[in-house]
Amino acid sequence: MAENEAMEQQQTLPPNPEKATLEGRNKYLGFWFFLGGETVLFGSLFGTYLGLRSGVLDGPGPADLFHLDLVFIMTMILLTSSLTSVFAVINMKRGNYKGLLIWMWATVALGVAFLVFEIYEFYEYYHQGLGFSTSAFASAFYTLVGTHGAHVLFGVLWITTLLIRYRKSGLTLTNAPKFYTAVLYWHFIDVVWVFIFTVVYLLGIGG
Amino acid sequence: MSSHVDPSAPLQGEPTKNTQRKLKKEMRTQLVSFVLMIFITSMAFLSIASDAIPSGFAIPFILLLAAIQVTLQLYFFMHMNEKGTAWVNIMIWSGLFIAVLTVAALMLLIGVVKY
Amino acid sequence: MSYEKAQSKNVIWDWLTTVDHKKIGIMYLAGGAFFFALGGLEAILMRIQLMFPEFSFVQAQTFNELLTMHGTTMIFLAAMPLLFGFMNFIIPLQIGARDVAFPFLNALGFWLFLFGGLLLNVSWFVGGAPDAGWTAYVPLSSESPGHGLDYYVLGLQVGGLGTLIGGINFLVTIINMRAPGMSMMRMPLFTWSSFVASMLILFAFPALTIGLLLLMLERLFGGTFFAVDFGGNVIIWQHLFWIFGHPEVYILILPAFGIFSEILPTFAKKRLFGYSAMVFATLIIGFLGFMVWAHHMFTVGMGPVANAIFAVATMAIAVPTGIKIFNWLLTLWGGRIQFTTANLFALGFIPSFVMGGVTGVMLATSAANYQFHDTYFVVAHFHYVIIGGVVLGLFGGAFYWWPKMFGYRLNETLGKWFFWLFLTGFHLTFFVQHFLGLMGMQRRVASYLGGQGLESMNFISTMGAFLMTIAFILFLINIFVSTNNKENAADPWDGRTLEWTTPSPVPEYNFAQTPLVRDLDAYWYEKYEGDGKMKAAEPLGDIHMPNGTILPVLISLGLIIASFGFIYMVIPLIIAGLGVTFGSMFVRSIKEDHGYHIPVEEIKRDKEEG
Questions:
Q1: pLDDT for C125-155, tens place per residue?
Q2: Which residue, among C291, C270, C326, has the nearest Cα to C204 in the 3D structure?
Q3: Exposure of A102 by Cβ count < 10 A (0-12 exposed, 13-18 middle, 19+ buried)?
Q4: How many Å apart are CA B90 and CA B98, to the nearest integer?
Q5: Distance (Å, rounded) from C-alpha A150 to C-alpha A42?
Q6: Does a structural domain hold residue C574?
Q7: What is the pLDDT of residue B56?
Q8: Are B4 and C544 inside 8 Å of each other by CB?
Q9: CATH of the domain at C90
Q10: Residue of A51, B61, C77, C168 with fewest CB within 10 Å of its CB?
Q11: Cβ neighbours around A29 below 10 Å, total
């Protein structure tokens, strides 16, 4: 049945190519549900961090470590990457495959930049005496922000794989849902970061 | 086997006029929401960086800003405002609800303070 | 792959690479049954140890390992996979679908469960199983010497991932793959309750994932989340565990409720009483299931207000559960009841489960809970709800759906013997444990002193456990002696729902033509309002099928290799294992696999033969 729907739309591009087949619709819905689960996953990590953040002991605490300027730059990078991935989806719906690829590459580049800053950040903290085992705060901080970082890394690798695999294929009914879910994932990473910069960094310095 | 559609064939053609109009409008909406997000983020950073704002105000304020920004992300960037997203809305809000419960419990009910 | 090539695989390779929901369902059942027997054996060994005061059948350390593995195995490796087996096999048939939404992920979920379970049990042979209880409370678990707890953490992490994948698969299947006319409010109740259980899986398992991650980081990488001398807090584990753990018990019981809601109308020859109230009650139970986790922690010292809130929320669950009980009773009321084995299990369930529910309300009374906490009263309570609810449901479901799944009917006489022996053994084992608990016998103790009035009831309890074992062996015998009851296997019970419209055994494409659903209890409607056959919603045509693949096995295997690497801190093993896993995922991502089509001639031939 899914194929018949696709057949009718041969001449004009379907308005939502990612949802033009049953496989695409399944992927779309399943991925959203996965993100619903991820919400609880990160909720548990945030809760753990908030429960343990005063457990600093003799080690350095949030106010000693965090620098607003660095976090601000990282936030702007991730926010911009969210916008570039929105542009990618708009280009996909326009049938401009080249535009999709270019904006996705831009997203990947920004993701890599974010990761570089994060590695630098962790390196700095480590040298200021915040090892993973230093205090409960240290463990909780590295686990929460590190899990987010691991998600960014996975996203970068995933999107890069898609971009290389489909560099010449043009937009198809198979790859449209793949790009679309990758973009959803990328937005979700940004959503988590909004809470991280607010709850970890801003509250760490201000509260 | 020729009657079966090849899912690896490149899609041809242009979107309909109607879709193109919608996409143009969406482009504008997305840019506006992006500018709004940048503004909100800057406000949050400023209210913490500035010494003039008491933390009693700043903390609830930045939490509110975060909530607004996440809503913008979900409903505009991730298109949860579109039709046919009822199940998506149900699942995401259920997830957020349980996440909030979890955070509240792990902050408050860990035996440090008795309620 | 072409149709011809898909047909010509050898048997073992076929099962290893299958993405057919029916085969995966059967593998879940086989895997679950294996672990059920293993968990049962562990229980028997514990009961023998407790048969006499100060008995020395097993050592205290072994006893701790037995009780930990019994709980963990029964919950994660027996009850859930057995339910997943039924869900996998039955849900697509009940909603008129040819397959699940994600056949590949479905297979991956199964292999993750199986390998996770095997990993956990490897610990028996390499220096001792986990010994900190199935709840693995810190600091007992974080400080536990040896590698037992490392196996617990990684085995459950791998298995839990499989469960989460399975849950998402069922949710999307039920939302997107229903046949025309099958609206949400026409879905059979087993599908509905599995849907709600899958929602609970989706939101509960991430909390366990994080709990296990923290415990792994604590044990293997020097994390300090639970180390009080580093500013850590042990209560965080309890919250994370129970935020998962309480919904988990509803994940188990809701599909069992669904099974009873299928069996009772079939054998009372009446439509399920209060269908929409049943759906609503299921949703309410699912919602409240997330509101009550801290009732496992009344004695932790959260404070009186927190305790009171969780006590009230817990008692509220009795309301939707009561709605269900009364609806089942009213389904039976005035019905022409057939006392088949499947129905006996459903009828036996109602009073047994009510007893477990009543002790649940007693435990929810937070003030009284200080008295009950960690005694055999709790053990009696949760065995009444889990055996009296889930296990009776599984056995009832097995007798009910066996003809559909395996093409032959189980022997009814042996089945009734099995039922009565099992029910008697179950009550004998656990009823007395209420009183043992009230008399002060602690749960999880490896022995007890004589002369305190505990001897006779412990002895009775052990005798009951033997009776359950004998009953279970009768069931296993039944499976083998009944294989010739092949006649009337397609619709032996005069069924009401879509799964009974398919031939037994079910062809790999389930429905030659997608059925058109015209009412709740779709098949029953056609039997009495139509011509007894489902109307087709589409013309006969080629049927698209997904290709089998070995990648799910490889992904799971890689994770197991990496887990051994983590447990013994062998870096090359970690890299190799993760390499296999991510490499397989990479292959899956870049290799487009569009499946194959079964030609329409083939389907016509099947139809004529059937």
A1: 998 899 999 999 999 999 999 999 999 999 9
A2: C291
A3: middle
A4: 12
A5: 13
A6: no
A7: 87
A8: yes
A9: 1.20.210.10
A10: B61
A11: 22
Give a yes or no: residue C573 inside a domain: no
Structure tokens of A189? 């990473």
Distance from CA of A47 to the nearest CA of C (A): 9
pLDDT tens per residue, range A157-186: 999 999 999 999 999 999 999 999 999 999
CA angle B53, B58, B61 (to 5 degrees): 135
Backbone angles phi, psi at B5, to 5 degrees: -70, 140
C-alpha A169, offset from chain centre: 25
How far apart (Å, rounded) are the C-alpha atoms in residues C27 and C21?
10
Asked if C539 is an interface residue toward chain A (Cβ–Cβ < 8 A), one would say no
Across the interface, whether the CB atoms of C203 and A37 are under 8 A apart is answered yes
Q: Give the whole-angstrom CA distance, residue B35 versus residue C206.
A: 34
If one compares C490 and C607, the residue with the highest pLDDT of the two is C490
Average pLDDT, chain C: 94
Is there a contact between B12 and A11 if contact means CB atoms under 8 Å apart? yes
Q: In chain B, which residues have their Cβ closer than 8 Å to the Cβ of C236?
A: 106, 110
| B7 and chain A in contact, CB less than 8 A | yes
What average pLDDT score do residues C213-234 get?
94
Could you tell me if B87 lies within 8 Å of chain A, comparing CB atoms? yes
For the residues C564-574, what does the mean pLDDT come to? 95
Contact flag A86-B96 (C-beta cutoff 8 Å)? no
Q: A with B: how many residue pairs have Cβ under 8 Å apart?
A: 177
b/e map C315-336, b = 16+ CB within 10 Å: eebbebbebbbebbeebbeebe
Comparing CB atoms, the residue among C202, C305, C544 nearest residue B115 is C305
Residue C543 phi/psi, 5° resolution? -115, 130
Query: How sure is the predictor about A9, in pLDDT bands with cuts at 50, 70 and 90?
Result: very low
Q: What is the CATH architecture assignment of A17-206?
A: Up-down Bundle (1.20)
C186: tokens are 């026409």
Query: What part of B 18-37 touches A (C-beta under 8 Å)?
Result: 19-20, 22-23, 26-27, 30-31, 34, 37
pLDDT at B35 over 70: yes
Subunit partners of chain C (3 or more CB pairs within 8 A):
A, B
Three-class SS string for chain B?
Answer: CCCCCCCCCECCCCECHHHHHHHHHHHHHHHHHHHHHHHHHHHHHHHHHCCCCCHHHHHHHHHHHHHHHHHHHHHHHCCCCCCCCHHHHHHHHHHHHHHHHHHHHHHHCCCCCCC
Q: Indicate yes or no: CB of C164 within 8 angstroms of CB of A37.
A: yes
Residues of B within 8 A of C592 (CB-CB) are 7-8
Touching A (3+ Cβ pairs <8 A), the chains are: B, C
Q: Residue A182: which of A102, A113, A88, A80 has the closest Cα?
A: A88
**pLDDT surpassing 50 at residue C311:** yes
Residue C523: strand, helix, or coil? helix
Distance (Å) of CA C21 to CA C112, C494, C548: 16, 24, 11
Residue C220 host element (H or E): helix C189-221
Q: Express each pLDDT in C23-81 by its tens digit.
A: 999 999 999 999 999 999 999 999 999 999 999 999 999 999 999 999 999 999 999 99
Please answer yes or no on whether B102 and C243 come within 8 Å at the CB atom.
yes
In a domain, C556, yes or no: no
pLDDT score for A127: 95
Between the alpha carbon of residue C287 and those of residues B39, C201, C234, the distances in Å are: 37, 12, 27
Domain membership of residue C17 (yes or no) is: yes
Give the domain range for residue C203: 3-549+593-609
Whether residues B74 and A191 touch (CB distance < 8 A) is answered with yes
Looking at the 3D structure of chain C, how many domains does it have? 1
Q: C350, C357 in Cβ contact below 8 A?
A: no
Q: Is C232 at the interface with chain A, CB within 8 A?
A: yes
CA–CA distances in Å: residue C390 to residues C341, C397, C430, C458, C545:
16, 10, 15, 24, 34
Strand partners, C543: C598
